[in-house]
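Service request form, structural biology core

Requester: graduate student, group of Dr. S.
Request type: structure prediction, single chain
Budget code: on file
Notes: please return the result as structure tokens.

Sequence provided:
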Amino acid sequence: MKSAQETLSPTRVKLTIEVPFDELKPALDKAYKTVGAQISVPGFRRGKVPAKVVDQRVGRGTILDQAINDALPGIYSQAVAEAEIQPLGQPEVDVTRLEDGDLVEFSVEVDVRPQFETPDLSDIEVTVPDVKVEDSDVDEQIQALRERFATLTEVERPAADGDFVTIDLSASKDGEKLDVAQATGIVYQVGKDSMLDGLDDAVTGMSAGESKTFQTQLAGGELKGEDVDVEVTVTTVKEQELPELDDDFAQTASEFDTVDELRADIAEKLTRGKRLEQAADARDSVLEAAIEKLDVPLPETVVEAEIANRRQQIEQQLAYAGMTMDAYLDSEEQTIDEFEADLEKRVRDSLVAQFLLDQIATDSEVGIEQDELTEHMLRRAQQSGEDPQSFMQHMVEHNHIPELVAEVVRGKALASLVEEATVKDESGNVLDLKNLRGDGSIAEGDEATEAESTES
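Core staff response, request fulfilled:
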């Protein structure tokens, strides 16, 4: 086999591939065997029909078509490897010459990963928010913990802010009950404002056994956004009693002996979480700054396909949530043109980011260990709420492992890009994100030195 490469554009090439018939012999033999097993010829056992007889029965052209189709994937893969290109998307293949017994010539056009020079990115400087944990942040966590250990006591008085009420709801429109908007036995905390507009005002001051009707708008379904009348009936009112915030509570609710120790632990956990948020901001900002430095030609067919795919995903998510595109645009205060422009920019930036990180990974010879891949799959399974074993099995069976490997490699390439950049917080401190652990803590001393030596 021999092939010639022609560059049609910075993102598209044409391969002309000539294949001698000798190299097609395994595919021809297979085609004759397959077709011969499907026809019945008197005097011959099924599957033992000679090639000449098969040609007479089905035509030589049928055999050639099947043989070429069977051989084409391998021929294409070999030509791509010899041309040292990285295809994007499906190729367009034509048989441009067929000389039976001599050779077959293919013409293949395919989008390819663009070649580009990576500029000096070490001068990138970004600023990210400070890591700040206020006393109010700790108080909020303490309050949530106390609420977990709170008790509810039924009371014979009107419902007040913070009380838990059990309610029945019945929505109607124009005097007719809506079957899809009926509910009983709902437990709701007054003042949370987490269900229907106007519900808190309605139930505040109501006692068990009382009913009231208020007007609101449904949050979902076919009548989403339309005015309806809702009758709410309170069946019970319960008062929440929080435990005293003392050392006894700290010992009951945690492994700590004192409230001060509990507060310190909560503050440390919040700090770690904010460090991770800060690191994520740094990665996003550095990558965005790097993209702005690049001028990378993109294959338009790939861009258009990705835009269509993302648009379809958004429409499916909106449909699942019972929201129309018009309603979504209204909520985002966007026009359709602004939405499309934003979508296209995100797609183009995403493709440039992929190409850049892949280039960095190649230049730096970034590799991946099995434990890194396993850890990544476990994290992905946790994020999707799936059983880890089932998730891994699905990834293997559907050949998604190369995609997961690419995600890990790009993540490591991005980490190296961030390490080269200058990252400061809003107070002007230069941040060293290299020693940040996955839990938000910072490796220090011998552990940090060992991590640095391992990376180098």
